[in-house]
Structure formats: C-alpha cells, structure tokens
Amino acid sequence: MRPIRCAAFNRPIGSASVVFFVFGLVLVCGCRFPRTPARPAVFALPERDARQAGALALYAKGILLESSTQGDTNVNRQAACEAFRQAVALDPDNRRPLEALISALADNARFEEALSALEPFLTRHPEEVELRFEAARLAEASERTDDAARHCAALFALRPDERELGHALIRLLFQSDRDAEALRVMRDLQTRFNDAKSAAVPVQWAIHFTREGPQTAARALSCLDLALPLRTNAAERAALLTLAAENRLLLGQTNTAETVLLDAYRLNPEVNTAILRLGALWAARPDATHRLARRIQADPDGAYADRLILAATYQALDQAEAAADTLSQAYAQRMRLGYFPSESVYLWHAALLEAAQREQAAEHILLDALAAYPHSHELKNFLAYHWAEAGTRLDEADRLVTDALRQQPENAAYLDTKGWILYRLGRTYEALQWLLKAAELDKEEPEIFDHAGDVLKAIGRGSEAILFWTRSHRLQPDPAVEKKLRDHNAFPPPAS
C-alpha cells in the first residue's frame, strides 16, 4: 500500500497507524449517533414538477409512436393519441401536448373530440389567439356553428381591426339563424371602417339571400333595410329598391313590390330595369294593356311612366311592334313637353324597332339619340353595328366604334362590332384579330363565335370555322348557324 503523507508534519504514516486512527474515530463517534441501519437518500420532486416531467415523457413517447415505422401504423397512432391525452391530463396548461393531441384527433376527423379537449384550455387562457382560431375551425368542421360563432366573436373582440374576422362572424351567425346579431356586426363594421367595402357587406348578403329564394327573402329585406340608409346616390338607392321589390315578390307582396319599383324608377329614370319588371308584372294580369291604355287616356300629358310600362307590357307579351309604337308615342309626348328621353329609353326604343324589322326607324332614333347624347359609347356602338349589319356607311361606322373602344377598350361587344365592320370592308385578316380577342374576352356570346367562324371560312380556314360555329350553336341554337354546319357536313356537332 502506498504511504499517505501527513500534511502537518510532512512524513509518512504507516498502514497500521491509519487503521488504529479510524478505529478510534469510530469509537468516539459511536456514542453520539444511533446504531441504525443506513438508508439510501431519496430526493422527492414537488408534485407540480413531477406532473410536468411525466407529461413531457408522455409527450415524447407520443411523438416517437407517431413517427415509428415499425408495427401497425394505426395502432401506433392510437397509442400516440392516448399518450398525448394522458400528457394533457397531467399538465393541462402545456400547449405542446395539447396541440399534438388536437392535431392527432383532427387528422382522424375526430373534430368534436378535439374541440372538447381544447375548450377547457381556452376557458383558462381566453387570450390565446392561435388556438382560438383552431377551435373555430374545429367547431365548423363538426357543424357546431354556434360554437364556431362564439369562438369567432372572441377573436373579433381581441382583433377588432381585422375586417375578415367580422365577415366570418357574420357568416357564422347567419348560419346559426342569429340574424339580429349578424346585422349588429354589420353595423359595427360600418361604424369602425366607414368605407365603401363595409357598406357593401349588407348588399352582398341581400343578393345572396335573394338568390336562395322565397325562404330567405325576409333576410334579404333586413339586409337591404340596413344598406339603404348608407346610400345617398340616387342610382344606387334605385338599384337597392329594385332588389327589395324582387324580394317582396318572392314573399307574395305584389302590390308593395309595384310601389317600390315605381319609387326606384322615379329615383333613377335613366335605367329601365324597374319599368321592364313592372311590364312583366302587368303582363300576367288579364286585360292589362287595355287597363293601362285607359289610364293613359285619363291623363295624356302626365302619363309618361304609364306609357313606358305599357311598352314594357307589350314587350313581355312578345308584341314588339306594339311596344315600339307605344315608345314612339312616349317619345313624341316627351319632346312636346321639352324633354329628351333618357339614353336608356333611346336604346330600348331602337332595339324594339329592330326587333320589329323597322330598320330605317331604328336608324332615325339612334341618330336622334346621338345628337342628344354625343358622348354615349353605347349609342355609338349600337349605330355602328346597325350600319355594319345593313352594309351601309361602313367608314362612318368604323369611326363610331373606334370612339366607343377608346372609352371601353376591353368591351367584347364593341370589339365584335369593330371586327364585323372590318370584315364588311373586306379587311378580313384585320377583322379576325378583333374577333378572336372578343371571343377570348366573352366566351358566352354566340354571335361573336358565329362572326369569327364566318371570317375564318373567308380566309380558307374551314376546319377552324366549324369549331367556332359549333361553339356558337351550343351556346344558342340558331337556324342560320345550323345551316352553315350542315353545308360543311358538321351537323349535328360532336358531343363536347
């Protein structure tokens, strides 16, 4: 044994001396300590720390099980889910095992179970935004729209400047049949943002509910009641009133609807929509035209609106000739009083005259209209196309449609008119470029495809012409187009 040096005296101490020294020390100390067996030391963790440690271990176990490639995958996932659940039970305020549990449950479409696991945490931590979003998604996925709306409302309260949250909340409230709350959120959005986008929200919902049919017409009217005070422009108010009238009709309130339509026309006489709708309503009544005619006779100088309604009624009854004559009378009466008809009435009148095959009268009306409204791109295009179809005054027609295109360069109808005039002028290759652009912009207008087919045929591209004629015929069957297809042995067209 190697000797130990004594620090005090710097000399070696023998082994026997060491033994006697230790024995003496034990004798001296033995009288002071009880002679009981020694026990191993135990370091006990506080309960909270122990639970957190256990939760962390279970969370790690679940991660390993999820990522394991050995054994049955489904069994592993179930075991992982259970491990996450136990971890959440041990440490319910730890986000990591909670998020893992929610993700595992959602991956298996167990949305309600995931939501139930998440709800207690959000009760204790209402400020948690990300998990609140997840709760709203889970509630909607499990078709619990009331709960989805509740969580969305909490998010909107936390983030009131996020407009999209308000939009989502309105949708969820409507889906939960909580209309009054949805309307309140719309008002809150308008108060907070006070802009065109917030003012458009009730209109958008009104349009949506109108399309849904009679069962949601009352909802549409509630939205319109909110939207109307936000609009001061007469044209916009007239459009909303016309939409309100449609919902009154869906609810069977015909008399009220007619009154609203008249109000809409008086607010904005530049648009014929309300008048045409009134004509359609009158056309459904027995002896409608005679009743309207008697009203006009009773007040010949003050019945301009009635004359327009009568023309619209004849049009709804497919009596274009009588409708055109009635508008001619309305035009004469208006001019006697020193007023020009609106641009829309001129356009309507010319269209009726063309439908009645009175081309010269239509041209005369269009020329008068352009004199009254020289900057109207719609009138310029209408007259240009009228001349293109007649094959007359083509250079002047080209000038008119070019002016119209300066105002609306992407208008497919105007591009079609331009191409058709160039075709009539013999400038076939130029015409094709305009018509192909028109067809690209408007894929639902049969006449554009018919024109493009004619021009393709004229330059020797017959197979392509057949494709365009076929498209035109599918959009709207027409005997003239059908004949072109038959002449090229391409009728009936192949199924798309």
Written description of the protein model:
This protein has a domain at 269-374: Serine Threonine Protein Phosphatase 5, Tetratricopeptide repeat. The protein has 26 helices and 2 strands. It has helices spanning 15-30, 47-67, 73-90, 95-107, 111-124, 129-141, 145-158, 163-175, 179-193, 196-212, 217-227, 234-250, 254-267, 273-283, 288-298, 304-316, 320-336, 343-355, 359-372, 377-390, 394-407, 412-424, 428-441, 446-458, 462-475, 479-487, and strands at 4-5, 12-13. Strand 1 (4-5) and strand 2 form a beta hairpin. The chain starts with a strand and ends in a 9-residue tail after the last helix.
Give the SSE layout.
Blueprint: E1 4-5, E2 12-13, H1 15-30, H2 47-67, H3 73-90, H4 95-107, H5 111-124, H6 129-141, H7 145-158, H8 163-175, H9 179-193, H10 196-212, H11 217-227, H12 234-250, H13 254-267, H14 273-283, H15 288-298, H16 304-316, H17 320-336, H18 343-355, H19 359-372, H20 377-390, H21 394-407, H22 412-424, H23 428-441, H24 446-458, H25 462-475, H26 479-487
Helix pairs in contact: 2-3, 3-4, 4-5, 5-6, 6-7, 7-8, 8-9, 9-10, 10-11, 10-12, 11-12, 12-13, 13-14, 14-16, 15-16, 16-17, 17-18, 18-19, 19-20, 20-21, 20-22, 21-22, 22-23, 23-24, 24-25, 25-26
